[in-house]
Every structure is written in C-alpha cells, then in structure tokens.
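I have been asked to look over a protein record a colleague put together. This is what I was given:
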Amino acid sequence: MVRKDSKSLKVFIGFTGDIYPTTNLKKYSFIVIYMGELEGKKILVTGGAGFIGYHLCSRLSKLTSNLTIYDNLSSGKMKNVKDVPNAKLIKGDILDTKKLCSQEKADLIYHLAAQVVVPYSMENPMIDFDTNAKGTVSVLEKARKDDAKLVFASSAAVYGNPTVFPTSESYGFHPFSCYGLSKVVGEEYCEMYKDQYGMDIVITRFANVYGLRCHGVIHDFLDKLAKNPGKLEIIGTGMQSRDFVHVSDVVEALVKVGLSDSANGKVYNLGYGETVTIIDLAKMMIKILGLEKKTFITTTGQSWQGDVTKIWFDISKAKAELNWNPKVSLEESIKEVIADRKIKV
C-alpha cells in the first residue's frame, strides 16, 4: 500500500504569537515553513485535547479547514478543544478500533494519545501497555485503512539511562520504565507497518516538552512556591537532568515532518540539545521570582521508580534534515509561564 499524493511545495508565512513567548514576540512574529500542500487535506490528531495536542491543533487549524481531534478526555481538557474552534471533536478511545476506523477518512494522522506518567506506568503496567502499545496498533490500523501518513509521538524514555551524551537516534532501545518499554513496542509496530504495508510513517522522540497549559516539573515547582515560598522540595537528588524543549518548537517540527516526503520512514529526536539539572532549574525559577534570600531548597534523595538520571538529545539530524532549530530558551519561557499563571509569592 503506497501513498501517491501530489508533492508540490509552497511557502507559508504565519503569525505564531499564540504559542511563542510574548516576552520576545517581535523575534517570533513570523516563521517561514516550507510545506507540502495542506489546504483540503483531512488531518486527525489523537490526543488533541492534551497539552501538546492543543498547541499542535492550534497551529493546524490555521492551515486546514478539515481537522479532527480524537480524544477520550481522560487527561485531555475540554477547554483545549474549545480553544480550537475550527476543529471537530470525536470523543473516543484509541482502543476502540471499530469506532476509530469508522471515522472520516484521513490523509494525515498525528498520534499523540498516550499514558505518559512514568510512576503510573510502574504501578499499572497493563493499563500502560494497553494504551501505549495496543492503542498505537489501533491507530496504525486506522492509518492503514485510510492509506494515511502517520506521525508517531515517542519519547526519550526509549533510551532509558544512556551512557552516551548527547544521545542520538542510533543509540538503541534501553527502556528503564514500563512507559519507556510501551513506547518501544509502539515504535517497533510503526516500523513493522512501514516495512510490511509500505506506509508513510515518521517517529518523533520528545525530550521534556514544556510551555503554557503544561504539567510537569516547572508547574509543580510553581505550585509549591505559591503555597510556601520559603521551601521548595525536589523529588530525588536534584542532580537528575533534562533536555527542556518548548512546545512551539516541537509543533514546528511536527508540522514539518507531517508535510515532508523526505522525513517518511525516519526517526527524529526533538529536544533543545542541552541538559539542565533539576536543582539548577529550581535555582533559575527562584531567581526569576526574586526569592533567592527567602526559599530554601530540599531534596528527598530518592526519586520515583523508573525515573532516569539524564536526558540530553543530539538533535543534529533534525536540524540538518528538517531545517529545524529550537528557538525558545528555558529562562524566557519560565517568565512567560509565571506571567500567564499570575504567580504571586
């Protein structure tokens, strides 16, 4: 089953102030993306009511009039759907293959729906496997039925605890959590469907994606500081480190791979290409909030089961092949998040 679409190119120029930090709006007011023809294409986004899904759908809704969000709203938010008024919502579970495959034929599918909480995966490995592994096969069946291109959202968790930094796509699978293992299985099924059915599939591995409407360590720290500015507790030693990439940069890459023929069949790391320790992140946030002389940092010494010590992506492949460069710095985005949440300490 080989796709045969028209491949003419055009240049799209669009405003992106909705997801780029307003603190540096002039710098990011315009972005030029070389893309295949999109107008008229039918796009389906699983997990479109989630954090990354919302930002991706916000961008896609400006590029096509035929956008469908497929989400069971177990963790996604209706507000995210309502804030993308041009998108159609189908409330459904990716494990309901019959319902998923009965939806309108799609030309391009972004598969973001997933169980992404590592501790939960360790406590509930069967549920994690069902959602991330079996659910991915269900979405692959939808793509196979429709002869649609598929972009699969994978994770840094497939690398486990790497011994090579920065870590490239060729490092190999060494998952350290049930979540990471379920993503490995999803990737392997993508490779199988690509090879056996001739499907157009792109795998993107996310580092730590953050931004407005996000959950995670940045928002966790802000919640703690809002409740008690005098103390900030870090789960673990604080020396674990992460590669933080802004959601707007990830969305740009997702749009690019979705519309690039040359990306088909490939795997891309999507990160910032730097690593920051959690304790340095805490100090950065405390400084931005003006709490250097007020907040005392403590650590629990032990993290949760399945937590990895270091994430640091080699993103040279995505830079070279996609002409993609992450633009948003961690510090400026933290200021944006603080302003948006109106944090007062």
